[in-house]
Amino acid sequence: MKRAHGHQNIAPSGDRLSPYTVMLLKFSIVSIFCLLIAGCDRYDKKPVCSSTIDKNDLGTFSLGPSGTAFDWKTETVWYRCPGGSYFSLNTCSGDSLKLSWDDAVAYAQELSEVSGLQWRLATLSEVKSIISSTCVGPAVNPNVFPSLKSSSVWTSSESRGNGDAFKCAISTYNGAYSCRRLKKVKTSFLLIHEPSFL
Q1: What is the C-alpha separation between 144 and 53, in angstroms, rounded?
Q2: CA torsion angle for 144, 148, 152, 153 (degrees, to 10)?
Q3: Best CA proximity match to 101, nearest among 171, 169, 174
Q4: Under 8 Å between Cβ of 60 and 76
Q5: 62 and 53 in contact (C-beta within 8 Å)?
Q6: What predicted TM-score, i.e. pTM, was given to this entire model?
Q7: How far is the C-alpha of 90 from the C-alpha of 156, rounded, in Å?
Q8: Which residues of the chain have pLDDT under 70?
Q9: What are the angstrom distances between the C-alpha of 104 and each of 8, 125, 176, 184, 185?
């Protein structure tokens, strides 16, 4: 049987690789090796904050009455428990709430009316200020925030360029944040207010 002109047998013979494939494999291996060396410190396992922070270390905070803590660095007062739970006997009791962004803002407004203090969601930079860069799980001082779990929390910060449907949220596990979280997603939140003596 005659073979049609212009067609060549391009199937590899045996197990041999073409020189181009060999070069591509070598380049890929070298590239992966370089990336692993350059990025190793990003993936170092960090200790859990509750096991590394001394029991008497409050950092930049002073503990106040009724489950509050004053941060001398940002001059703000934090409620030590996530929204929905309450402070009792040096810990947080009750279930924390997960709400849409609009409902979390409404919760803060209702609490402000009942308490006479102007509670609000913390900004992204305010939540970042309580995140530790040396530990995780959650990356906050457990002496100040005794029952805070690793989760995403809403912030009051705008999601610039992403439209009204999104807001900024930050992970208490390690401080990673995104400003593309849909406002309707139910998420935990922290409450903060300015002290009355300023």
Answers
A1: 11
A2: -60
A3: 169
A4: no
A5: no
A6: 0.75
A7: 27
A8: 1-15, 22-24, 26-28, 30-44, 197-198
A9: 68, 18, 20, 10, 11
